[in-house]
């Protein structure tokens, strides 16, 4: 069964549109110079909406922790159990986090602290989903 | 003065509560605790059980139904009064009145309850309660502000057949678009716990003494699902063999859904002194809600949120960690209880040390009486052991669970990012 597919809304559409072009974007408030993700209608720090813009990220990050799902409530994921659930901190602002299943990394062998970079998985409806892979030097 | 919304003491500095020691919990009442409602036994619906619990609380206080002038409830036990389990409708047909809507089946409003119980003197209804910590805080504020004098406070927690909260969505909208495509769910609990263990050098096995002791305590509390239906001991071996729901979150870290209801009488200290049992004075209530900076609430977020709420509670009550005799931090999930213990610095426990406390004597009669009623792990997902037990402790009727010293009890829940704390005392302070 394929994984659940995001249904963009007005707030999230710029993010998913950028993903479709192979770019990982986050919101930035030009007033307080603060990034935020997931997107919100206003800057959570200063409360204004009209200073929010979208900026590209480096697409690089670090694995800061993980778990493994053995018994999910999400029906679409049941056939793929167990699977990794890693959390990625963005390189230029580690407060910004992303999810990853780290495809190709063995279950429960997630290298915490390792560097990763984004790539995009093709889902249905033209959605491209950001995923992350280990950076090998 | 409490408003319908915004009544919480959630902005620093909160200051000492203006009704400190002037409001009290007078009694508690419980219905039987079942694993599920079977969908056919109309004498075991959540509504029927809430009536049983309400009558028990009224009887326990030694008052008459006509004395009740306020009903304050969380209709389903979750934030906003939403049901803890799934709803009955619309996939299944409703029944004849009074079960022709969700009210009475998976939620129980104060209005429904008053109609069924024939409570004629209720002049204040509030069916906008939250989880039980916020609910008791709301009730305390309402009574302190004079909206009612003798409040019947009810807390139903329902569970229907089947596994609840299954998610069949193949297209995900709103917040789920940022989590479901990666299968993120209960893994969040395991993620934070893994960060905790990695930072402080602990491991999941060190949870065992805590959860095992909670089960022992729960078997000594008559309201517990386990005491009523599965009285066999729960062992360290049982815990260590628990299957993973997610890595670092075992099935035995998850509270077991049950179908039951509890009720309390919250009243002025003055009225409580004339009731059957000695008053359990409420010294303070405080609340907090936080939002993590980004997609997940990590360990840094968690510790920061808990610290703010713990300090807010101490500021509101005027107490210090050494003043707390019995501490009752929420445990549903068990893997986040250590954050509460460390934030409150109970028994001098600092960051990363809660699992050391678990290895010490945490029995009710020992020096560190922790979750003396069994928490949710030892009772089921009813959340009311966090109040019924300390009420009984302070009133000196906890029986085999009675702590040696039970003058101040503090309970705290529900989540590290959405919490309230209630401070209870044998004296008005």
Q: Could you tell me the number of beta strands of chain B? A: 12
Task: Give me the side-by-side strand order of the main sheet of chain B.
Answer: 3-2-4-8-1-9-12-11-10
Radius of gyration of chain B: 20 Å
* Structural classification of chain A: mainly beta
Proportion of residues in extended strands of chain B = 15-25%
User: Could you give the order of the helices and strands of chain A?
Assistant: EHEEEEEEEE
Shape of chain B: globular
Largest sheet of chain B: 9 strands, mixed
Number of domains of chain A: 2
Q: Radius of gyration of chain A, Cα only, in angstroms? A: 16 Å
Structural class of chain B: alpha/beta
Please describe the biggest sheet of chain A, giving its number of strands, its sense, and whether it closes into a barrel.
Answer: 5 strands, antiparallel
Write down the overall mean pLDDT of chain A. Answer: 96
Provide structural commentary.
The complex is a heterodimer of chains A (137) and B (429). Chain A has 137 residues and is mostly beta strands. Chain A has 2 domains: 7-56, no CATH class; 58-137, OB fold (Dihydrolipoamide Acetyltransferase, E2P) (Beta Barrel), CATH 2.40.50. Helix content of chain A is 6%, strand content 41%. Chain A has one helix at residues 13-20, and strands at 5-6, 25-29, 34-36, 52-56, 60-69, 83-90, 93-100, 115-122, 128-134. A 5-stranded antiparallel β-sheet of chain A has the order 7-6-5-8-9. A 3-stranded antiparallel β-sheet of chain A has the order 3-2-4. Chain A is globular, with a radius of gyration of 16 Å. In chain A, 35% of the residues are buried. Chain B has 429 residues and is of the alpha/beta class. Chain B has a domain at 23-162 and 257-272: Peroxisomal Thiolase, Chain A, domain 1, CATH 3.40.47. In chain B, 28% of the residues lie in helices and 16% in strands. Chain B has 12 helices and 12 strands. In chain B, the strands form 2 sheets. Chain B has a 9-stranded mixed β-sheet, sandwiched between helices. In chain B, strands 6-7 form a two-stranded antiparallel ribbon. In chain B, strand 11 (408-415) and strand 12 (418-425) form a beta hairpin. In chain B, helix 9 (299-317) crosses helix 10 (337-344). Chain B starts with 22 loop residues before the first strand and ends with a strand. In chain B, 58% of the residues are buried. Classes of the chains: A mainly beta (137), B alpha/beta (429). Strand 1 of chain A pairs parallel with strand 5 of chain B, so a sheet runs across the interface.
């Amino acid at each position: 069964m394929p994984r659940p597919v995001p249904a963009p809304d007005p707030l999230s559409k710029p993010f998913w549109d950028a993903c479709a072009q192979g770019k990982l974007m986050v919101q930035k408030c030009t007033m307080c110079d603060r990034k935020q993700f997931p997107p919100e209608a206003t800057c959570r720090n200063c409360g204004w909406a009209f200073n929010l813009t979208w900026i590209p990220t480096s697409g690089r990050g670090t694995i800061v922790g993980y778990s493994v799902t053995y018994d999910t409530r999400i029906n679409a994921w049941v056939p793929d159990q167990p699977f990794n659930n890693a959390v990625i901190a963005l390189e230029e602002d580690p407060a910004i986090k992303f999810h990853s299943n780290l495809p190709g990394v063995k279950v429960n062998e997630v290298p915490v602290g390792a560097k990763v970079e984004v790539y995009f998985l093709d889902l249905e409806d033209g959605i491209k989903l950001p995923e992350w892979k280990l950076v090998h030097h | 003065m409490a408003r319908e919304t915004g009544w919480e003491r959630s902005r620093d500095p909160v200051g000492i509560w203006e009704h400190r020691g002037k409001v009290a919990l007078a009694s508690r009442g419980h219905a039987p605790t079942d694993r599920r409602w079977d969908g056919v036994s109309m004498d075991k619906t959540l509504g029927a059980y809430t009536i049983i619990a309400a009558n028990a609380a009224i009887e326990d206080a030694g008052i008459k139904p006509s004395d009740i002038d306020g009903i304050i409830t969380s209709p389903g036990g979750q934030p906003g009064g939403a049901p803890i389990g799934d709803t009955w409708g619309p996939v299944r047909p409703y029944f004849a009145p009074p079960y022709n809507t969700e009210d009475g089946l998976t939620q129980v409003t104060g209005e429904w309850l008053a109609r069924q119980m024939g409570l004629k003197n209720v002049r204040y209804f509030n069916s906008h309660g939250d989880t039980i910590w916020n609910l008791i805080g709301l009730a305390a504020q309402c009574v302190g502000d004079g909206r009612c004098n003798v409040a019947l406070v009810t807390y139903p927690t329902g569970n229907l057949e089947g596994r609840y909260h299954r998610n069949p969505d193949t297209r995900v909208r709103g917040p789920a678009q940022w989590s479901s495509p990666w299968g993120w769910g209960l893994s969040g609990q395991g993620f934070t716990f893994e960060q905790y263990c990695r930072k402080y050098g602990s491991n999941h096995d060190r949870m065992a003494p805590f959860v095992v002791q909670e089960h022992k305590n729960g078997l000594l509390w008559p309201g517990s699902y386990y005491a009523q239906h599965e009285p066999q001991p729960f062992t360290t071996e049982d815990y260590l063999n628990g299957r993973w729901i997610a890595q670092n979150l075992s099935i035995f870290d998850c509270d077991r859904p049950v179908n039951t209801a509890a009720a309390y009488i919250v009243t002025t200290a003055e009225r409580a002194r004339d009731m059957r049992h000695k008053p359990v004075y409420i010294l303070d209530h405080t609340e907090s809600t936080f939002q993590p900076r980004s997609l997940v609430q990590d360990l840094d977020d968690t510790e920061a949120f808990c610290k703010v709420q713990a300090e807010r509670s101490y500021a509101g009550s005027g107490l210090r960690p050494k003043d707390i005799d019995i501490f009752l931090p929420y445990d549903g999930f068990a893997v986040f209880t250590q954050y509460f213990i460390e934030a409150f610095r109970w028994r001098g426990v600092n960051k990363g040390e809660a699992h050391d406390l678990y290895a010490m004597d945490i029995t009710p009669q020992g020096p560190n009486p922790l979750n003396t009623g069994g928490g949710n792990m030892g009772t089921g997902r009813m959340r009311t052991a966090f109040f019924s037990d300390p009420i009984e402790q302070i009133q000196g009727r906890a029986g085999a669970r009675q702590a040696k010293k039970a003058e101040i009890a503090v309970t705290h829940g529900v989540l590290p990012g959405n919490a309230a704390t209630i401070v209870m005392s044998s004296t008005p302070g």
